[in-house]
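notes to self, project folder thing:

trying the whole complex as one job this time. last attempt i did each chain seperately and stitching them together was a nightmare. two parts in total, labels are on each line so i dont mix them up again. if this works i'll redo the older ones the same way
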Amino acid sequence: MQQKYNPHVIEREAQKHWEQSGAFRAVESPDQPKYYCLSMFPYPSGKLHMGHVRNYTLGDVVTRYYRMKGYNVLQPMGWDAFGLPAENAAMANGVPPAKWTHDNIATMKQQLASLGFAIDWSRELATCEPDYYRWNQWLFLRMLEKGLAYKKTGVVNWDPVDQTVLANEQVIDGRGWRTGAPVEKREIPMYYMAITRYADELLAELEKLPGWPERVKTMQANWIGKSFGVRFAFPYELDGKNKKLWVFTTRADTIMGITFAAVAAEHPLAARAARDNRELHAFVEECKRGSVMEADLATMEKKGMPTGLHVTHPLTGKKVPLWVGNYVLMAYGEGAVMGVPGHDQRDFEFTTQHGLPIKPVIKPKDGALELPLKAAYVEYGVCMNSGKYDGLDYQGAVDAIAADLKAKGLGEKQVLYRLRDWGISRQRYWGTPIPIIHCERCGDVSVPDGELPVVLPEDCVPDGTGNPLNKREGFLKCQCPKCGKPARRETDTMDTFVDSSWYYIRYACPDNGSAMVDERVRYWLPVDQYIGGIEHAILHLLYSRFWTKVMRDLGLAKFGEPFVNLLTQGMVLNEIFFRKGDTGRITYYNPAEVEVRTDNGGNRSAVLKSDGKPVESGGIGTMSKSKNNGVDPQELIDHYGADIARFFMIFQSPPEMTLAWSNAGVEGAARFLKRLWSFFYDYRAVIEDFPGLAKKLGPAVAQSNPLKLIYHFPDDWRTIDPGHAAIRRDVHLILKQAIFDMQRMQFNTVASAAMKILNAIYSPLGFQDLAQPQEQSQASRQAFYRQQFLHESSSILLRVLAPITPHITHHLWRELKFGESVLTAPWPEPDPAALIEDEIELVVQVNGKKRGDVRVPRDADNKAIEQIVLANPTVQKFVNGQPVKKVVVVPGRLVNVVV
RNA sequence: GCCCGGGUGGCGUAACUGGUAGACGCUGGGGACUUAAAAUCCCCUGGCCGCAAGGCCGUGCCGGUUCGAAUCCGGCCCCGGGCACCA
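result (full assembly):
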């Protein structure tokens, strides 16, 4: 064993050992409990970033922990390989997305290998491989057959200069990112998946997911947005015909307060009204400019214009003016709303702006409405100014009004979801081709199963002016499968969320060339622990749940929920440094180029290393290219090694919280592992003779078996050697807490626990007094148990640390002959006998303020404790003769004297 | 704008179902070792008052419940994530 800790050497050795023994290969074995631990697969952007390192380190800790607990663990890895960045790179460098992607995968795989993750690489997959995406196509066709996939028009961002569809990300302040041209909305035909058919189940089954964070479930529930309301119609007459304008409301109780109605700019009625109204036409056109993003729509100034048309109030029969409003969403409900300014804040603001009347119809249950209204009164109350409905509460009014509307054939109660069907068509090259053929005679025809996969040509280079597949004759031209006549292939590809909606299922059977799934899926699925960024809380996780349910209903899966437990990790942040130039231009400097000094009072100053002049701090933010505050994990690994990087990641922050980068923190991690190494270096000299000791000491210790890691201490040990017994108690208490923290995945305190154990056994023990016992005397027994205690504590320390820093613990475990591999060592359990204490310490409070502590016998009852506490001089000083009202005793913790 | 989180020393954080606020680590200061430096080891490190013993204040802000609140409730401020074509 080397005296100096050299991470690079021991990490290479450990990784070689694992690789040669095929240690991470997961094989189905029905007799063993399985554990499927999955981290979200990366997009192959080029290099690993810190978020990946954090994600996969967390996954690896879970994986290795469950292995030591005796589970058959699967931890696979793959690549979310289709997507926009590959096309952007192609435009910048002229390299086809396929080549760029494959090169990136090779680089990142290398990087992952250097971190020593317990990954079964035999199951690796990439979503851009035809073997994978053919099943996207196959399942899409099954959904089409069932009506779960269908075609309709949808709205997209359109760049009028490049004549191309833009992703939301490519729209900056309402303009195209490359051309700077104002973006327009455009309607195009697209394929949809009917996720709304599963809305109720997706909502209801959130309750069956106790292993998911509450906040994720709340976000999903709000996203699905089930609301109970009333769908009703305003009758109107147009072009000599009687028509109906349908709207939806959750506040039917306010229906008597309607002073106007409004439709979205995309509503057919808006188009009809604009036909002979030039001003309105211009307004509708104006509304069509700008992006389709909801955040943009919601923050827009509320604008509107009267159509000149009137509709009839369904209950009063009065005429109500019809407006076009840019805040009415075509995608939600009917694309039209009733306007009740008295009780809806958006309507209120709209009305104030356009001088429409306000009619309050709801008042607080007890009390009156303050008039005139300064804002909409949106609380539930009772009806007023509402004729026959006056005095009714919310539910009573809704019931009565819905019944009256129904009697007139003008409406009824309806359940509405905010959730919209999933548009999967993308007018992009680098994705799964949608397996449809367009025939002039037969229409849209599915590609027959036998001709799947529709393979994407891999040598196209996009240029920013639309999908290059449209110029690829070889791909475009085909025969209609129905009539055999020349036809044209669909060039739209699928949303990459389709790829990521089921990859975790395919890991069970990546090599099956003839079926999407097989019996191995039954063994491994569902995923026991899924780990990934909180930014995926809604879309990816909701689509995956939907996809799983579709596969279940098609008889392809036996489970309805894909992820039993979910851990959403926080983002990785770093400081931002910049200078403002004379022209106001901001230049960002990477924190690695900046030196920060802190004085005693906590005042910080930062200078650029290269010129020694100050830079400004821009606070802390997510690592990003634009702020130039990223840290390259590769540099970290090259400099410190994998274990230090991993330990830092785990120790710095709890998994769910954001993690702030800190060079000093990395140094701290390095210091700890060096200290661990030097402890075991010294300890090795002692342990070499240890197995022989048991023989020398005879029958008194024959039951001890250090190599099987079962330790026995006689009852009188606590009196023979109270000092070490107390330390052993500490170690086992720390272990007990570490197990609790491991279970709740608060790994930062598990790392702390390892530090505490090392602190507990390091200094007080020193090795020089561990003389070799020669005979069966009391002193020899004492020395023996001290050695056994040290052996036990050391083995606990290495095992607690093994999931976090696998390389150094692998090396030390073998070096000290604890066993063949710590990877398969049993996870340690605290010894109940070690935790026993004869006296316990209680905190004493007077009126809730800490005033000292007392030691009482372990089995003292509350009355005895009360007497001891009241007799305490400090307590008497603070009680100061006042009558004692009450004494609260919290067993094992504290006593509060109330005066 | 809407939905969801978070806010504790100079810093990262800890405090299990309400029960000793600041474990563990970093930074800073002091000391030991060294010819010297690095490394390592030891001590101190929330604020205020005090020679000390000790006392008072303190978990974003305001208020409430409780013997007792970082933790529960109501209101506010600030920061972060998501908003359906970034992944």
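what i see at first glance: Residues 663-687 of chain A form the longest helix (25 residues).
need to look closer tmrw
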